[in-house]
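U., I forgot to send this yesterday:
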Amino acid sequence: MSTARARVRGMLVAVALAAASVACAVPEPGVRLPDGSAPPSAEVDADLTTLPRPDVDVILPAGLPRVEGEGRRLIATPIAALTAGHTAPGGDVVVALSATAGLDVAGWYVTDLETGWVQVLTPYGRGALPSQNPARVNGYATWVRASQVSLAEAPARVVVSLADRELTLTRDGVTTTIPVGVGRQGAPTPSGLGQISEIVTSDAGHTYLTSLQSEVIDSYAGSGFAATALHADPHHGATVGRALSDGCVRLRPEDFAVLDGLPLGTPVVIRG
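Result:
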């Protein structure tokens, strides 16, 4: 990821965090849930403003569950400025999820369900730096109260095949497959289940940042993070079909429009 993109991303996150910080995690009098009822007092788990937020350059606290499988094909949307993230249903509150991602309303992919609880992918954050333990970089989730989110079917799913160097998008029952460029030897694109966590717009167009991060690079160009992104090939398509990136998935500029309109929380499955 270029330094310019990192600066743009940093500016957007600063705006998002500033917006979230002005609201209290405890619902104000008169706030209603989507069904019209008042939030129950049990939802006040902690002073969420003091907890870490799973941002792109954050090391996640211990105790969060690892993801198994490919999820429930649902996206959770928060209803409060901050949402408590638990280690388990009824477990410790260790993170606070922000309702915004850049300039957009956040969306989190649902990986499991229990009565009264929803497990979602953390929007960002690593369990460890690659230089510390590459096996613990990706794959984390957190549990949120079902009353604190609204659920909707994920309208699309992105699957990237590293072996075939192809991206397959299934949206509303229609499947489209396009060639992509992937990570080079020594900096491979990480495999696993992720989600679209943020959309950054600059003069170069859209960049879809995923929750997956490089498992060999601690930081791109001193940015403090190494997020795996879906973006247009900066070489006008010349590297598509090849393994030359530092881990990002590159699309031909003319193909990139296929991703337009994907909501945050859209699942991204990367397979070897």
